[in-house]
Amino acid sequence: MANLFSVTAPLLIHLPTGDMHVMAERFPHTRGLVYFDLFWHLGNPHLGVHVVEGIVKGDGPWKIGDAMVRVLGCHGTDGALARRFDEWRIYLTENLDTYPSRPEIEAIARRHGALT
């Protein structure tokens, strides 16, 4: 059984609104999941952090309330999001010194109720 919070592959969340996001960071929450959008730290970091409420079910794909989380597909399946993720990886490689430290990321996640 794959644990949502230990999988290292990039994950996509499909929200009940129809929106889909690739998760840059993810943490367990007392009521579900906290996730960070790609490039979340370039603006107000709290606007790029989201809480999804619901019991985490499954072993990939996962259900959380009315949202579904799965591994990001290749360019043929999730083309635009896969390209965006590629841009994210390149950005991190070139700008690692500007990305918040792990303790800073975890502190922001805790302010949103994450269990870190």
Distance between the termini: 22 Å
Structural class: alpha+beta
Instruction: Name the helicity range.
Output: 10-25%
What fraction strand? 25-35%
Give start-end ranges of low-pLDDT stretches: none
Structural domain tally: 1
According to DSSP, the number of beta strands is 7
Question: What profile does the largest beta sheet have?
Answer: 7 strands, antiparallel
Order of helices and strands: EEEEEEEHH
Number of helices: 2
How would the blueprint of this fold be written?
Layout: E1 11-14, E2 20-29, E3 32-37, E4 49-53, E5 56-58, E6 62-64, E7 67-71, H1 79-95, H2 102-111
Antiparallel strand pairs: 1-2, 1-7, 2-3, 3-4, 5-6, 6-7
Fold and architecture overview:
With 116 residues, the protein is of the alpha+beta class. The protein has one domain. Helix content is 23%, strand content 31%. The chain has helices at residues 79-95, 102-111; strands spanning 11-14, 20-29, 32-37, 49-53, 56-58, 62-64, 67-71. The chain has a seven-stranded antiparallel beta sheet with strand order 4-3-2-1-7-6-5. The radius of gyration is 14 Å and the shape is globular.
